[in-house]
Every structure is written in structure tokens, then in C-alpha cells.
Write a structure and sequence with these properties.
The complex is a heterodimer of chains A (426) and B (295). With 426 residues, chain A is of the alpha/beta class. Chain A has helices at 2-24, 33-36, 49-65, 82-93, 110-114, 122-127, 130-133, 136-142, 165-170, 180-193, 204-219, 221-226, 237-250, 262-270, 282-289, 326-337, 339-349, 365-376, 391-407, 410-423, and strands at residues 39-44, 70-75, 100-104, 143-144, 147-148, 150-152, 156-157, 160-163, 197-199, 274-278, 299-302, 309-313, 315-318, 378-381. In chain A, strand 4 and strand 5 (147-148) form a beta hairpin. Chain B has helices spanning 2-36, 53-57, 62-94, 100-108, 115-125, 136-143, 160-185, 189-197, 202-210, 215-230, 234-240, 249-259, 263-294. In chain B, 72% of the residues lie in helices and 0% in strands. Chain B starts with a helix and ends with a helix. Chain B has 295 residues and is mainly α. The chains are: A alpha/beta (426), B mainly alpha (295). Chain A binds chain B through residues 4-5, 8-9, 11-12, 15-16, 18-19, 82, 85-86, 89, 93, 111, 114-116, 195, 203-204, 254-256, 258-259, 261, 273, 391-392, 394-396, 399, 402-403, 405-406, 425, and chain B through 5, 9, 12-13, 15-17, 19-20, 42-44, 62-63, 66, 123, 126-130, 132-133, 152, 154-155, 157, 239-245, 247, 255-256, 258-262. Chain A: Part of a binding-protein-dependent transport system for a sugar. Chain A: One of its GO terms (cellular component) is cell envelope. Chain A: Keywords: Signal, Transport.
Chain lengths: 426, 295
């Protein structure tokens, strides 16, 4: 009897321990400062393809320059960062930040900034002379109330029109349309003269992506940039016109768009099944993977009405407050900001450096064009990819567009967008 | 001392799981309701008590109305579909069939597949592309001369969620069959024989003797399917990703909590989902306890 008793206690104690151990794990803290400088934990969602290769190249450079610091790659896979952001949020809430984490540069970081989870990097920018290295407009567009909170490693372009030269020839079109009006006319011609999809679209978020290009193409760069400021006019006739254009353009997309992901939507163009696709320039990397020839299987131009404007988005790295190994994290940011680091990362990832002094010989085909444009164009921040709106605003625009795809009701969409701007709390 | 000995070991043995359930189930449910009744609409503000404000405000939200409509349509089609199909399969089995074991295994197999895997396959099967670009079922219909059957499946704005229920029916009807089969087999042969002796036709034996015995099975199946259906998330995300066209409460909750970072609104949606399941489960529990007492 006594035996059974003790066994019962032992079993239940073991159970209790197992339960409490769940809460006690992961509490590792860098003890003294010296110990702490020996490693750096970098959080990203770069786990595959060119992104992972680019990260590896930067890490190799980091190890060469900082042999004393161990690099811990805390990348989380899945859904272009969705999973990673959920993991990150819980770590930040538990006050166990990584030493540096990836985030889209711009308003997408506002949640972290307002929660006081990021350190301003102004003095880092001054020391590393980054204000001169990056384009002036980029610095302006990532500054929030006088502070900069992240270091852009790369630049992607959102407003790119990809097209199939073969399908355009079949429709009797001579080249890429320059304005929205020409674009709509071209879509009509493709629909009438060929059996191909005029504009290949994917799931709901690619419609959000299309919307920002149509807004920029209709409003022009200054009015577009003003949409994301405090005195934005979302109810004006110009926005109405842009949304009417959006509706007309959506009328030329394929029926199965909602069950198509962006890769398939873009692939329709290089396979000669569709005439046009508006997608960010990660499509160029995808086409390269597919073994397609630029200028033959596909060609590109600025999306209609946006020539001379670079709608950018950028992956950047941050310095969280209470980073356990702050000094090492700063060393990592130096690599991210440096010419060498950016020239190692970007050719592999298929993007261009944010710096103006990149080594041009490393960038071929589409990237050579993009680099050229980056140094001469005016800049507009991408809405959908986190530059101009915070998370709430972003979600509300997505909801409004999703409902619009069903209702096709322009006044309702405009009201919803105006309300989203007002309620964003940005 | 002796008195303690009788109940203390049992209590100590149960304590860890009781504590874990108290904290991680009921504690978190309580915390969720507290959050839902606060105005903590971002990660920063502390949030103060606002009563049921979030619960009423949600009904002014067009997207919520749509998500609820979708969930109701999905639930009706899925629960009825799986019940009827499962019942019918069990009836065929009960009538005696050669190789019953094999059939039973085949019908039960889909249970072993996760909703994610089911979703990925059915996403392809139910591709809404027109015949010239068609894949999956639309292509099949076209090639056997049934082109008129090709349709938009889940992308239809009004009845799309009914199509979304098809993979769920495929997956769960085998399970319902197993439940019903156990029900059929639970009816004693003596009863059936007595009915036959009294001159019942085979149909009447089922209608008046066997089916009435199946009521508890039907109720249990209804509860199990109903709560799966109201919480459905993985299947919808695997087929449609997070699009309004196939929005359901669980997806909306995810979006508000993890994309928009609005804890209060996410918690409110979660609270409604819990209440919807509770409406189903609590009367069932009460009924079970009562009938057990009677027995």
C-alpha cells in the first residue's frame, strides 16, 4: 500500500514538472556583456531559393569579418513571412527579441515602433554615411517622426508590366502600352483578336497589388504619395477615376484568378497563355528559374502610366530594444548596409541594392534595367508591400478589395478605402 | 489519516491534468472573453473594459456578415451531406456485402488524411477554369461530353461554400458510416426477427425497429460534424487561401489577430465561435447526463 502511495506521488510530481517545464523553457539570457558578444541571432523568413542563397552569402561575409561571433540563423519558413511574423510577435511580447529581425521597410514596422520594440538607427546611419549612400527620397520615405528604424538590404519593384511578345504580335500590338487608356485599349484588342487571357491575375492579394499600380498610373506620383499622408483626399474625383479604371481592367482577367497563385498567373505570360501580368520584379527571378529567355519569352515595362516612377519595397533589418547581443547585431547591420554585403545578397535574391554605388557589372537583364531606373526615377512606396500603410490599414484595404471583387461597386469601394484611411490610426 | 488515504492518491494523480485544463483551457477562455470585452485594438494600448461593445459592433461589419453566411451554408451542406452519405453507406454494409472489411477500410481511409492534404488535392480537382484551360473535374466533364456540368465550384459568389463542403463530406462520411454501422449492429437480431415474425416487410423492420435505435448515433454525429464545421479553417485556407470569397469566421479571426494586430476584435470573433459550438454541445451534454441518470 505504502509503495503504491509513493509511486502515485512520483508520477504526479513528474507530470507537474512536465507541465511547468513548458513555461520555463527558452529563458536563456546573455549574462555579462562579454559573453553576449559571441553570437548574433538573426530572424528572417528567407528559407529557400535565391533569398536563402543571398542570406548565406552575406553570412559568409559576416563570418570572415567577424570570426569571433557565432551567427545563429533563426529563419522561419512559410507564407512570405506570415508564419515568421506570428512567431516574432510572440517573442517580442515575451520580451525575448532576436538580435535583429527582417521586416519590410516603412509603415509595416509602425506596430513595432509604437510598441517601443525598436531602437532608432539615426546615429548608425550617420556613422555609416548611409544618408548619402541611399537615394534621398528613400531616406525620406522610411523616416518616421524624424527617426529611421531599419536598414534596407534590397529593393524590389512593384510596378512592372510583364508581357508576352508573341501574344502581343498575335493581337497586332506593337509594344507595351504607356498609359492606362492605352492599356485598356490593348486589353480589349487582345480579348477580341486572340483566345488568350488579356490580363493574368492571381488570388485576392494580386488584385491589391494591381490596385496600387492602377492608383499610381492614374494619379501620378505626387498625388499617389499624398494618399498615405494625414491630409489625403480619398473621396476626390481622381481616385474615383482610378477605381473606375481598376474595375475596367479587372474585367479583362481570367475567371479562375481566385484559385491561381502569383507564380501560375505570371507563368501564363511566359507560356504564351496570357498577354499581360502586373507583378513585382520577383517574377523575373521566377522566369529565370523556369529557364525562360528575357526579351523573347517575356518582356517588361513600367506598369501603364508609371514610367519614370519606381514603386519600391524593401526587406530591411532592425535593431530590437533589449537585443541580447546588441554589439554583434550592430556588426550584422553593418554588413547589411555595406556595398559588399548588398552586392553579395542581391544578385542571388534577384533584387537590386538600395545603395546608389552598387557594382553594375553584377546585374544582368532585368536587374540591369531596374538598377538604371533606381538611380534616375522618382520614388513611390508600395502600399501592399508594407511601405506606406500599417497592418490595420493594409488589412482593411484587402477586405475592401475582396468585397469589391464580388460587388464591383466603385462608390462602395471608394467609401471603404476612405474609411480605411481614416481608421488606420497611422 | 486513513480517511485521506482513500481519496488523496486519486486527487494527486488527477491534479496535474486538472490544473493544466483549468489554466490552459478555462483560464485562456476567460482571458479571451476579457480581451473581447476590452478596447485593446492594437499591440500598444493597455485596453479598458467596454462591455459588449465589440460584440454588437461586429454585426455592422460587412465582412463578418459574409463570413457567418458562408459558415452557415457550409455547415448545412457538410453536416447533411456527411450524415446522409454515411448513413446510406452503413445501410448498404448492414444489408451484408461481400468483402465488407475491405469496403469499410476504403471508406474510412480519408479520415487518416489531414484537411490540408485534402484541400490541396480538391483545390486542383475543383479548378474553375473554363474547359479550354480546364484541369481536374471540369476537364473530366468536358472530355466525357458532360461539358455543361463544368462550373465555378467554390468561386461562385452565392453557392460556392456548398462546393467547399464537398471535400469535407468526402473526408468525414466514412467516419459517420462507422458510427452508424456500430448503431445498426447494436440492434439485437431478436428484435428484427420478432418484427419479421409479426409480418413486417424488410423496409418496415428498418423503418420501425432499426432506425429509432439510431437516434443517439445521429445526435452524436451531428455534434461531432457540427463543431468541426463551425471551426473550419485548414480546409478553407488550403483551398482558397485567405480570400473574402471563401471567408469563414476562423479565417477572419486569424486575419484580425495576426495580420491586422487587433487583439480585441480577434478575441470577439473567437468568442462568437466558442458560443456557436457551445450552443450545440451544452444541450447535448445535458441530455447525455440526464439519460445516463435515467438508465
Amino acid at each position: 500500500m505504502r509503495r503504491g502511495w509513493t509511486a502515485a506521488v512520483a508520477v504526479s510530481l513528474a507530470g507537474l514538472l512536465a507541465v511547468t517545464a513548458c513555461g520555463g523553457g527558452g529563458g536563456e539570457q546573455g549574462g555579462d556583456g562579454k559573453q553576449a558578444a559571441t553570437k548574433v541571432e538573426v530572424f528572417s523568413w528567407w528559407t529557400g531559393g535565391g533569398e536563402a542563397k543571398g542570406l548565406e552569402a552575406m553570412v559568409a561575409d559576416f563570418k570572415k569579418k567577424q570570426p569571433g561571433i557565432e551567427f545563429v540563423n533563426a529563419a522561419v519558413a512559410g507564407g512570405s513571412g506570415t508564419q515568421a511574423k506570428a512567431v516574432l510577435a510572440s517573442r517580442l511580447q515575451a520580451n525575448q527579441p532576436p538580435d535583429s529581425f527582417q521586416g519590410h521597410a516603412g509603415a509595416e514596422l509602425l506596430g513595432y515602433i509604437k510598441a517601443g520594440q525598436l531602437e532608432p538607427l539615426n546615429s548608425f546611419y550617420d556613422e555609416q554615411k548611409l544618408r548619402e549612400a541611399f537615394p534621398q527620397q528613400l531616406i525620406e520615405q522610411i523616416t518616421y517622426q524624424g527617426n529611421i528604424y531599419s536598414v534596407p538590404v534590397n529593393i524590389h519593384r512593384s510596378n512592372v508590366l510583364w508581357y508576352s511578345p508573341a501574344v502581343l504580335k498575335e493581337a497586332g500590338l506593337s509594344g507595351a502600352p504607356k498609359t492606362i487608356e492605352e492599356f485598356i485599349a490593348a486589353l480589349k484588342t487582345v480579348k477580341e483578336k486572340t483566345k488568350k487571357i488579356p490580363l493574368s491575375l492571381g488570388a485576392q492579394w494580386t488584385a491589391d497589388h494591381l490596385l496600387e499600380s492602377v492608383l499610381l498610373g492614374t494619379l501620378g506620383v505626387d498625388a499617389y504619395n499624398a494618399l498615405w499622408t494625414a491630409n489625403a483626399d480619398w473621396s476626390g474625383p481622381q481616385v474615383t477615376k482610378a477605381l473606375e479604371n481598376f474595375k475596367t481592367i479587372l474585367g479583362y482577367t481570367q475567371q479562375e484568378a481566385a484559385s491561381t497563385d502569383w507564380q501560375v498567373a505570371a507563368k501564363n505570360v511566359v507560356d504564351g497563355k496570357a498577354a499581360f501580368n502586373i507583378m513585382g520584379d520577383w517574377a523575373a527571378g521566377y522566369f529565370k528559374e523556369l529557364g525562360k529567355q528575357p526579351k523573347q519569352d517575356y518582356d517588361w515595362a513600367a506598369s501603364p502610366g508609371t514610367d519614370g516612377v519606381y514603386m519600391w519595397l524593401s526587406d530591411s533589418f532592425t535593431l530590437p530594444k533589449n537585443a541580447p547581443h546588441r554589439a554583434a547585431a550592430v556588426e550584422w547591420l553593418k554588413i547589411c548596409a555595406s556595398k559588399e554585403g548588398q552586392d553579395l545578397f542581391n544578385p542571388a535574391k534577384g533584387s537590386i541594392p538600395a545603395r546608389k554605388d552598387a557594382d553594375r557589372s553584377l546585374y544582368k537583364d532585368y536587374l540591369a534595367w531596374a538598377l538604371e531606373q533606381w538611380s534616375t526615377n522618382k520614388l513611390a512606396g508600395s502600399m501592399w508591400h508594407g511601405v506606406t500603410v500599417n497592418d490595420r490599414w493594409h488589412t482593411e484595404i484587402d477586405t475592401a478589395v475582396g468585397l469589391f471583387l464580388g460587388s464591383r461597386d466603385v462608390p462602395k469601394l471608394q467609401q471603404a478605402l476612405a474609411a480605411a484611411a481614416k481608421n488606420s490610426g497611422q | 489519516m486513513r480517511r485521506y488515504r482513500r481519496w488523496l492518491p486519486g486527487l494527486v494523480l488527477l491534479a496535474p491534468s486538472m490544473i493544466a485544463i483549468a489554466v490552459f483551457v478555462y483560464g485562456l477562455i476567460g482571458w479571451n472573453f476579457k480581451l473581447a470585452m476590452s478596447d485593446q485594438h492594437d499591440q500598444v494600448t493597455a485596453g479598458k473594459f467596454v462591455g459588449l461593445e465589440n460584440f454588437t459592433a461586429l454585426w455592422d461589419d460587412e465582412r463578418w456578415g459574409l463570413a457567418v453566411r458562408h459558415a452557415v451554408l457550409f455547415t448545412v451542406v457538410f453536416v447533411l451531406g456527411a450524415l446522409v452519405l454515411g448513413w446510406f453507406l452503413a445501410l448498404l454494409m448492414d444489408k451484408g456485402i461481400r468483402g465488407e472489411g475491405g469496403f469499410r477500410a476504403v471508406y474510412l481511409f480519408p479520415m487518416a488524411v489531414s484537411f490540408i492534404a485534402t484541400g490541396i488535392v480538391w483545390r486542383w480537382l475543383m479548378s474553375p477554369a473554363p474547359p479550354e484551360r480546364g484541369v481536374g473535374l471540369n476537364q473530366l466533364f468536358d472530355s466525357v461530353g458532360l461539358g455543361f456540368l463544368a462550373n465555378e465550384w467554390w468561386q461562385n459568389r452565392s453557392y460556392g461554400m456548398a462546393a467547399m463542403a464537398l471535400p469535407a463530406i468526402w473526408q468525414m462520411s466514412g467516419y459517420v458510416m462507422a458510427l452508424y454501422l456500430a448503431g445498426f449492429r447494436g440492434v439485437p437480431d431478436e428484435l428484427r426477427e420478432a418484427a419479421r415474425v409479426d409480418g413486417c416487410t424488410e423496409w418496415k423492420v428498418y423503418r420501425y425497429v432499426v432506425f429509432p435505435h439510431l437516434r443517439p448515433v445521429t445526435l452524436a454525429a451531428l455534434i461531432i460534424l457540427g463543431h468541426i464545421s463551425l471551426k473550419i479553417f485548414d480546409l478553407v485556407v488550403a483551398i482558397a487561401t485567405k480570400q473574402i470569397i471563401a471567408d469563414v469566421p476562423a479565417v477572419y479571426m486569424w486575419v484580425m489577430t495576426f495580420d491586422a494586430h487587433d487583439p480585441a476584435k480577434g478575441a470577439t470573433i473567437a468568442a462568437y465561435m466558442l458560443l456557436a459550438v457551445a450552443v450545440l454541445v451544452i444541450p447535448y451534454l445535458v441530455w447525455t447526463v440526464r439519460s445516463e441518470r435515467r438508465a
